[in-house]
Structures are given as C-alpha cells and as structure tokens.
Hints:
Blueprint: H1 15-22, H2 26-35, H3 43-47, E1 49-57, E2 67-72, E3 76-85, E4 88-96, E5 103-105, E6 112-114, E7 129-131, H4 136-141, E8 147-149, E9 163-166, H5 169-186, H6 191-201, E10 202-204
Parallel strand pairs: 2-5, 7-9, 9-10
Antiparallel strand pairs: 1-2, 1-3, 3-4, 4-5, 6-8
Helix pairs in contact: 5-6
Amino acid sequence: MRDHTLPYWRNNVDAESIFEGFSHRPERAKAWLRHRKVSETCIGFECAVMMNGHFEGGVLSDHTYHWTFTPGRKGDHAIVVPVYEQGRLVDMLAISRHDHRVWGCVTGAGQYVGNFTDASRTDRTQPAVVHVHDTPYSWFMSGCEGILPLAKAFFPLMQLASSIVAQGYEHAWQIANEAFIYPAERLGLDCEAAELAAFDRISFGVSAC
C-alpha cells in the first residue's frame, strides 16, 4: 500500500512539472550557497532553487540518503537542484536550509548528481578518475567536482573508473562494498578478488562533511 503522505516517492510522476510548479526564488538559493563560498560557476550553483515542503526520515535501503522531501506550498525551506538522467529531469535533490546534514530526494528515481568524468579530460583514452562524495555539502564545497551517488544501484558502474577518490576511510569501505564486493557476492564471483580490485582503485582524502 502506498504512503499517501509521500505522493511523489517511487511513483510515476512528471518530475519536470513538480520542479516548475514548486521552485521559486533562485536568488535566495544562490545567496545560501554564496554565503558558504560555493563556486558560482559550478553546475549545482547555476541550477539551484528554493522550495517549501517537508522532510521525512526513513529507512531507505536502496539509497544513500535517509530522508525524503515532499514539495508543498509551505513547510521547511530547502535548497533544491534537479537530477537528470540522459537529459531528462527524473528527481530533485533537496538540502535543508537550516541543517545541511538533512538531505534527500523527491521521487527516488535519481541515480547520481554531478559529472562521472572530469570535463577537462578531452583524451578519452586516458584513465578516468572519479571523485565520489558522500553528502551534498561535500559536493558543493568541491565546486561540484565529481559525483554524489543517490541510488546504491549506481555503485557498480564505478568499476568503469580507473581510479576512485572517496571522502574518507569509512566512505572508501562503503564504495568497496557497494561497487565491488556485494556485486561479486550476488553473482557468485570471487569476493577476495573483488576486494583486491577495490583496494587497487580506491583512495581517499578528507571529507567536507
């Protein structure tokens, strides 16, 4: 049975209409980001808008976040950026204006935000380095460099990268499990070899939280 308090979550809805219908005051969203010294040329800054609505916590085992966001005419203030897949708007990433640690999505259809490969990498024969973030705040503070995974189903695609940069030790282990070890377990493959492949590809720095 569907939860009628979450009319857009995991439902076949027109995400573009929702975005157009509830987004407003992009200048306030940009002021919030500018105050935190987010680069004004990054993709997240350029498309950020404000929305009202409510965040609801939950156990979302297929996703990397723990909140859903339902747009409305009143309620919490959120900074929202659209999530695209193959050029089509499929979801929205919402960050609480009052606590950047509270964040989630509207429909649950989004796989990730950001760029899987460095836009300056013109020679596609060169190794692909992917910077992976664990929070929207980290992604914004990096100038929206790299990606923020939203769906756990996206992680195995990271095996296509020659090098993966995580945000810290625990984040590196999460990527190792979701991108390498768990897929090997599901397919009955060599988990030890998958773990070694993960160690060979993943490095980590310091998270911006």
